[in-house]
Amino acid sequence: MNSLGEKIAQLIRTTGPISVSDYMAICLFDPEHGYYTTREPFGAGGDFITSPEISQMFGELVAVWLFQSWQACGAPLPATIAEIGPGRGTLMKDMIRTLRQIAPDLASEASFILVEASPRLTGIQKETLQGSGVKLEWQTSLDDLAAQPLFIAGNEIFDALPFRQFVRHDGKWLERSVGLVDDGALGFGIGTASLAAETLPPEILSAPDGSVFEIAPVREAMMSSIASRIALNGGAGIFFDYGHLRPGHGDTFQAMREHRHQGVFDTPGEADLTSHVDFSALASVARSHGLSCHMATQGDFLLRMGLIERAGRLGQNADDARRTKITSEVERLAGPDQMGELFKVLTIVR
Ligand code: SAH
Question: Is the beta carbon of 52 within 6 A of some atom in ligand 1?
């Protein structure tokens, strides 16, 4: 067992089994050994690659969407352009470059805010965004955002927030826990907390024993916090992640290391832990604040925003190697067998 595994085992010996949600939060954000606090997750040498890291076109099209939403709101100023969970800062860099070209007034007047929980990644984002020529600021939570129109983007942020799992057992849904199994290793158990049938989507009521159902109050709370600001002050939000558009059951807890799946208990803190995002749950939170929501696959969204045309323009004066690379980026971002269908986008507007 690695050091974080030992630390978690010690916690369980002292206080008893913990929830899947607590296990995930410790693995990702333990100050000494946590995944986002200590490791370099992104890119070819990391554990996974994200859309903004695949191609500059992703950030360019997101910037165009934010710009159009800003115009549709009557081009309010002052305004905040924010990103939540910015990783290496690549999406923000591409958005700023694009906005400075297509909307110089917005770029020069807006406050650009990065909301990031990891001090280490904040440092990397500062390097990436050095000399970007706009008013930039970092915050560790949404609480400090100014009371003004908010145009906010997020890529693969909701899947990185903790979630809870419930297992169907004798007709009840009981919370899955993380405890110690026979040989002292970390393993799943069943706790006593249960879900009331009235709170469940009809789709899962007839699930057989042993089925797993996931909920994510932390994700919903984050969406609520964003949506309430947009409802109050105006603005729009756009969020990409992998997940499903309709509620359903199934175990989607996964660990990813060096671009491969591994067991969620194999190397705590050394692998990325995620689960699929339930977009319908996030959309109903945003709707409860009176916002309109739209959901689509990443592929459909990017193609509708002009991915092919943008790729064509980028390729115009490029050599063959660069052109081949641009084509493969389009396929990775929007191809149905790549990220085009598994990844979804939720947009929210007042
Ligand atoms: N958007 C980036 C990185 C995705 S990884 C990309 O697409 O490449 C998830 C990011 O969310 C990391 O930067 C992580 O540190 C950050 N994060 C996780 N929980 C957070 C929280 N509660 N508030 C803000 N950022 C968070």
Answer: yes
